[in-house]
Structure formats: structure tokens, C-alpha cells
Specification:
Length: 95
């Protein structure tokens, strides 16, 4: 089930890498529109840098256009140099 938020909300999205790694580093989170209106400021929805807590990567997300669906994608490395990707969709809806 996709994540949902109101355009006025600021939420934290968690990407869980526990099934692949015991620790992760160098997270890179991106966001793109996959349905709805063109949003040239989609990347500005990512608030600050992604944070690592053990095998989780946390990213704050703000704003967004009501009616749009966005894809959040997180790339992170493990201690052995392997790289893993997690993705989720985020629907922005007025509450």
C-alpha cells in the first residue's frame, strides 16, 4: 500500500534494509512524479539529508502537489561494498 500525506504535512519515510545488511551507509534518496501533474520542484520535497539508523534510512518529506503520486527511491551501501535499493510510492492528498 502506498504512503499518503497531505501537502501541508512533513513526514519521515523509513527505508528498511535489514533483510540485506547489518548496517548501511552513503544513502541517496530521490523523488519523481509517476502520476499526476508535472512538478518541477519535486526534489525540493526532500527535507535535509537522509539519516541512517542501523539498517534504516530516514528521509523527511514536505509539500507535494495534491493528486500526485511520487516514487521515492533510496540507494544505500553495506559494509561489504554491496549496494541495495528500496522504493515506495507516496500519494499526496488533501485530508
Amino acid at each position: 500500500m502506498p504512503l499518503t500525506k497531505d501537502p501541508a504535512e512533513i513526514i519521515t519515510v523509513t527505508f528498511d534494509f535489514s533483510s540485506d545488511a547489518t548496517a548501511v551507509s552513503n544513502p541517496a534518496v530521490s523523488i519523481d512524479v509517476v502520476a499526476g501533474k508535472l512538478d518541477p520542484s519535486a526534489s525540493a520535497m526532500l527535507v535535509g539529508a537522509a539519516q541512517v539508523e542501523g539498517t534504516n534510512v530516514l528521509q523527511r518529506v514536505d509539500a507535494g502537489l495534491a493528486g500526485n503520486t511520487y516514487k521515492l527511491r533510496c540507494v544505500a551501501d553495506d559494509e561489504d561494498g554491496e549496494r541495495f535499493v528500496r522504493a515506495d510510492t507516496l500519494e499526496v492528498q488533501i485530508a
